[in-house]
Amino acid sequence: MNELPKMLAVVVVRAGTLPGGADEAAAECSGAVFAVGTGTREAARSFTAARRIWTIEVPLVAPGALAAALAPLLEPVDVVVLPASPDSRDLAARLAFRCERPLFAGALRCTADEADLSRLDDSLEVRVEFDEPVVVTLIPGVRGIPQPVPPPDPVELAVNLPDDVLDAELVEVLEPEPETVELTEAKRILGGGAGLVRPGDDGAAVMRTLTSVAAALGASAGATRVVTDAGWAAHDRQIGTTGVVVDPDLYVAFGISGAAQHVGGLGRPAQVISVNTDPSCPMTAMADLGIVADAPEVLRELARRLNGAADG
Question: I need a labelling partner for 196 at 20 to 30 A (CA). Which of 18, 121, 152, 162 fits?
């Protein structure tokens, strides 16, 4: 095995699918990444920020056994970074215990020497300096990724999972509900901006309608900073450079003008639809389809036609 770098991303793969934040973790480690789990070779081809990939294929994703098998391999690595996805969070705690390292969870940024951690529902940022080897989880959707690079050919490693490690038994993997899925994982997003709420309207009710319409379309609801600052939507629904960075296949913007801070968090959506009365606003200008109409009325009509979405 090639000599491992001092910073290395470890990404848990399930059935060949990369979790949210995988490329951000890889980018934070200069492109060096372990892909561990099931379908790792297929997943390796999906990376856009990896420059060196080691794959470790195992018969099942068992965090306790994985941690025991990985611990000796990761001994020369000073900073192990995992995306804060469900599987990777499970592995991170067990890995920290096995390697006898401190775990710094919920990082916004990480270097070889320090990390910035989010605390108190993102209202506080704490900087910690490393004086020993550590394990860090990186919050998806806050760092973004650089210009995509072609994934390299992975180096395959073989490990044996110990059978004497107590692990949780997997019963079933459920697909996330569109209303609650993390925006970094969402493939379809309906975004609401200030133009979706008329003066005097109940903004929270309007956003509930947007969430219902989004769910009926198999999508998730997002928002601009104006909406979240007003308390009409939770801050984990905020898309932008000061919120989460998303990368959906489809983004539908209701009443969003397209400020640089919001557009900077959109990633590279395959299709963009803008619903706005201003045909010259930046969002409509960048859209594949621009609907010049009143966003609240369009949302109400969608809710009516979909029948299951309550009118705000």
Answer: 121
